[in-house]
Amino acid sequence: MLADGQAYGEWVMGTRQTCEADPGWPETGSAIRYTVRVGPLSYDDVTTVRMVDPGRRLELEAHAGWLGTARIAIELLPWGDDRTVLIMDEHPLTGPGARWHSLAVEGLLRFRNERMLRSLARIVRARHPR
Asked: pTM, whole model, 2 decimals?
C-alpha cells in the first residue's frame, strides 16, 4: 500500500482524492498530488519521497499548504513469521506548524496518525488476506 501512490487517499486522514502520482512512485524525488479537505476548506497539496528502502523504509516531505511542511518517516519491521510492525514518525519542518509545535499539537498528530494506521491496516487486510 505504501508503494501505491493512488491509494494514498484511501488511508491518509484528510486526503479526499489523489489527483496524480508520478509513475516512479515511490522512487526518491517522486511525488503525489492530492486534495485535502478539512471541514469546508480544501486545497491541493503534494508529498515528495525523500528517501526509500523498498519494503523497509519510506521518508516523505508533505506540503501542508499555509501550515508549511512535515517530515513523515515510515519503517516496516518483520515481527515473527507472518506479521509486520509499522513505525511512523511525523514532525513539522517549516511554517506555522513547526513554530506552533507543542505537546497539544503532538497529541493531535498522534490521534490523526493512529486513525490513519488503523485505516491502512484495514485496507491491507482486505487486499491481502492470509
From this structure: 0.84
